[in-house]
């Protein structure tokens, strides 16, 4: 038998989820954590699902409750594969030439495929910001843009860095995250998706860093493509550092912001001499800016 505990959470809480192995260090069979957005009309109302092989005890439920809002609702799922069930609601996403799917779905012929595990659901392409970033990168390549020095800041699962290297395979690329667990997740996903790791052109270098504060980033600056799918507040705070580390003619792709926050984020960058090339659209716009 398997068990599922569900409780409401905000989008910010979903983004901040630690990996189950870290949170449930005492457990020999840690749960798979999946956060989803059931109603796009309510972008801050998310659900956190935790899938357990055995009935969760009071301590485990208390850990879950500390991550979100309200007590967990627990249900027994029966004999089916609980990992497969946890993936069932994560439908594949097509964004430009990219097709992002969980292990329970098959790759699509003619697409650039990426597989991301269900337990790492945030950032798989299910959220509009990730899909929008993939689409923006796809359009940049189709428009003839060529990049040789790429940085993905706040990489999470590593998906956007993988996509950038597929589009510009001769570039050198670095992906960073403030969360060491996220960097390990990106490392695992790189292996699953045959993305080479290393310091040479065509390889991805991974590092733990907050913002642009890392010697590896400093050594590689200036960049001609910066990608950041995080939140509006950090994007505004990082505007001076991003602008200073972007080379002439470079491009920045920004996401993780609501349409009501887009103007404030754009102003933070245009005030530093960047030009807004694409203001995006919809509730979760992706901003594309260029240096002169």
Secondary structure: elements and pairs:
Elements: E1 2-9, H1 11-15, H2 20-23, E2 32-36, E3 46-52, H3 58-65, E4 73-78, H4 82-87, E5 93-95, E6 98-101, E7 112-115, H5 128-142, E8 149-153, H6 159-167, E9 172-177, H7 180-192, E10 204-208, H8 215-220, E11 223-229, H9 232-237, H10 239-245, E12 246-255, H11 262-270, E13 275-278, E14 287-290
Parallel strand pairs: 6-7, 8-9, 8-11, 9-10, 11-12
Antiparallel strand pairs: 1-3, 1-4, 2-3, 5-6, 12-14, 13-14
Helix pairs in contact: 5-6
Subcellular location: Cytoplasm
EC number: 2.1.1.-
Function: Methylates ribosomal protein L11.
Summary keywords:
292 residues, Ribosomal_L11_MeTrfase_PrmA, alpha/beta, SAM-dependent_MTases_sf, methyltransferase, EC 2.1.1.-, 14 strands, Alpha-Beta Plaits
Give me a quick take on this structure.
This protein has 292 residues and is of the alpha/beta class.
Give the domain tally: 2
Determine the number of helices (DSSP H or I, runs of at least 4 residues).
11
The quaternary structure here is single chain
CATH topology of the largest domain: Rossmann fold
- Encode the helix/strand succession as letters: EHHEEHEHEEEHEHEHEHEHHEHEE
Poorly predicted parts: 81-87, 120-126
Strand order across the largest sheet? 10-9-8-11-12-14-13
Instruction: Tell me the radius of gyration.
Output: 19 Å
**Annotation, overall tally of beta strands:** 14
Shape by Cα distribution: globular
The CATH fourth-level homologous superfamily of the largest domain: Vaccinia Virus protein VP39
Q: Do you know the CATH architecture of the largest domain?
A: 3-Layer(aba) Sandwich
What's the rounded overall pLDDT mean? 86
CATH class of the largest domain: Alpha Beta
Structural classification: alpha/beta
In what range is the share of β-strand residues?
25-35%
Distance separating the two termini: 60 Å
The biggest sheet amounts to:
7 strands, mixed
Instruction: Give the fraction of residues assigned to helices.
Output: 25-40%
């Amino acid at each position: 038998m398997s068990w599922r505990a569900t409780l409401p959470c905000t989008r910010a809480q979903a983004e901040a989820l630690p990996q189950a192995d870290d949170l449930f260090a005492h457990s020999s069979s840690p749960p798979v954590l999946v956060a989803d957005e059931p109603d796009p009309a309510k972008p801050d109302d998310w659900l956190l699902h935790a899938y357990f092989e055995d009935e969760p005890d009071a301590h485990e439920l208390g850990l879950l409750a500390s991550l979100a809002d309200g007590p967990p609702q627990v249900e027994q799922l029966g004999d089916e594969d609980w990992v497969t069930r946890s993936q069932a609601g994560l439908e594949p996403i097509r964004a430009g030439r990219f097709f992002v799917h969980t292990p329970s779905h098959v790759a699509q012929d003619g697409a650039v495929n990426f597989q991301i595990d269900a337990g790492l659901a945030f950032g798989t392409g299910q959220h509009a910001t990730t899909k929008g970033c993939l689409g923006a990168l796809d359009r940049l390549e189709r428009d003839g843009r060529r990049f040789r020095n790429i940085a993905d800041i706040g990489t999470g699962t590593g998906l956007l860095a993988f996509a950038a290297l597929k589009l510009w395979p001769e570039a050198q690329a670095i992906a960073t995250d403030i969360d060491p667990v996220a960097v390990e997740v990106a490392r695992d996903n790189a292996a699953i998706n045959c993305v080479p790791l290393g310091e040479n052109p065509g390889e991805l270098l991974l590092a733990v860093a907050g913002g642009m504060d890392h010697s590896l980033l400093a050594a590689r600056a200036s960049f001609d493509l910066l990608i950041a799918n995080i939140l509006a507040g950090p994007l505004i705070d990082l505007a001076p550092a991003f602008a200073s580390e972007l080379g002439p003619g470079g491009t920045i792709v920004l996401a993780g912001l609501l349409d009501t926050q887009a103007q404030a984020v754009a102003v933070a960058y245009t005030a530093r001499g960047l030009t807004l090339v694409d203001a995006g659209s919809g509730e979760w716009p992706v901003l594309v800016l260029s240096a002169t």
